[in-house]
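Example 4.3 (complexes with small molecules)
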Amino acid sequence: MLIDCKSIAKSIDEETLSLIQKASVKPRLVSISVKPDQGTISYLRSQQKKAQSLGIEYEMINIDDEVQLEESLLRTSQDESVHGIFVSHPLPPNFDEIKIAHLIEANKDIEGRNPLNMGRLVYGMEDFAPCTATAVVRILTSVTNLTGKSVVVIGRSTTVGLPTSIMLLRRDRSATVTVCHSKTKDIPQITKNADVIVVAVGKACFLTPEMVRDNSVVVDVGINVVDGKIVGDSDISVQQKALVTPVPGGVGVVTTSILMNRVVKNALRGGKN
Ligand SMILES: NC(=O)c1ccc[n+]([C@@H]2O[C@H](COP(=O)([O-])OP(=O)(O)OC[C@H]3O[C@@H](n4cnc5c(N)ncnc54)[C@H](OP(=O)(O)O)[C@@H]3O)[C@@H](O)[C@H]2O)c1
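Answer. The structure with NAP bound is encoded below.
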């Protein structure tokens, strides 16, 4: 069975459209990427399409090196016409991720990379929480009550796994969270007992039916390109046992809608947090 993520995205878009009517300036998003791979390019295209459909100005910048990235961040952070700055992750391994995160003006940091916003997240303040993690939580709360549920998050990136696990622990959700990563031993043994699995690994068919309990919920964050097609981290046959988000048309569409909603809310706030 599949979770209808498109209808979740639609309701977020409806809110965004009604907020845009109240904005005195045209909301503007700048999306910066460094040597994007195919999965990132597909995500950026969907951002552009969504921005156009909602009436948000969208600028895409492709960068080759770290100095250019720093210059772009300084320029866009100071530019008053910019209401949201997005930087694609993961960055190349030789880049100083924390230095770059500091350069994103915290009040335009719609993807929650700046350490100030990461810290706010720990205190349960989610206005600038990473959008993918926000999408995961939004999807889960629309299909289940998380309180006391056993949730296994596979992946611990600062973009997805880590913020998702922090958000799931917030007292109004109170899931019991286990985080797995590449050094975790016997992941199938852990996932088999889970009510909910969030898989954010970046490996096609990583999650197989043997790893999943009957009638559990699976949120598939992965975006992988196999034979020119976009697929998730969950094997297609998992859908026969669990309630699963599709790929494409799942977490990605909700994430993009949340991103745009943030830009508009930020434009309405006048870029103040
Ligand atoms: N739908 C969306 O909106 C959206 C947004 C962002 C990303 N994504 C997709 O989500 C996936 C994950 O993205 P990311 O940015 O989190 O990637 P990432 O930074 O590469 O992190 C991958 C995580 O998976 C873990 N991992 C790798 N191999 C593993 C294994 N064999 N067993 C268990 N854990 C393993 C890694 O563990 P270690 O920490 O130990 O290395 C790491 O924590 C990618 O496919 C990406 O394209 C989708």
